[in-house]
Design a protein that fits this description.
Blueprint: E1 2-8, H1 14-22, E2 28-34, H2 45-50, E3 53-56, H3 59-68, H4 70-73, E4 77-80, H5 92-102
Parallel strand pairs: 1-2, 1-3, 3-4
Helix pairs in contact: 1-5
Length: 110
């Protein structure tokens, strides 16, 4: 099983949608968190130590993780999905964009 962490700013729309899409997947465990203080679930070192791979929605999320958690980030792959903050939770376009972006890491076979 692969442990996957999805990160956006507030963990309300993008990363939460990604977690919802993959939470019943048979080959991965997923969690999501946000980088902002007002995030639904704020990312911490424990999240990063748990993850095998981290998907961030934008480059500034990766920069924030690297700045706040340099030791934890040194041993994991962080992939920037380049999905802008212009979607609501479970938007059809957002779901498609997430699935297209992570398909080379997670098979669509749930």
């Amino acid at each position: 099983m692969l442990n996957i962490l999805f990160i956006c700013s507030r963990n309300r729309w993008r990363s939460l949608t990604a977690e919802t899409i993959y939470k019943k997947h048979k080959t991965v465990h997923v969690k999501s968190a946000g980088t902002e203080n007002n995030a639904r679930i704020k990312v911490n070192a424990k999240h990063l130590n748990w993850a095998d791979i981290v998907f961030v929605m934008e480059n500034h999320h990766k920069e924030k993780l690297m700045q706040q958690f340099p030791n934890e980030c040194s041993n994991i792959e962080i992939v920037i999905l380049e999905i802008p903050d212009e979607y609501k939770y479970m938007d059809k376009e957002l779901i498609e964009e997430i699935q297209d972006s992570v398909s080379c890491y997670i098979s669509d076979k749930a």
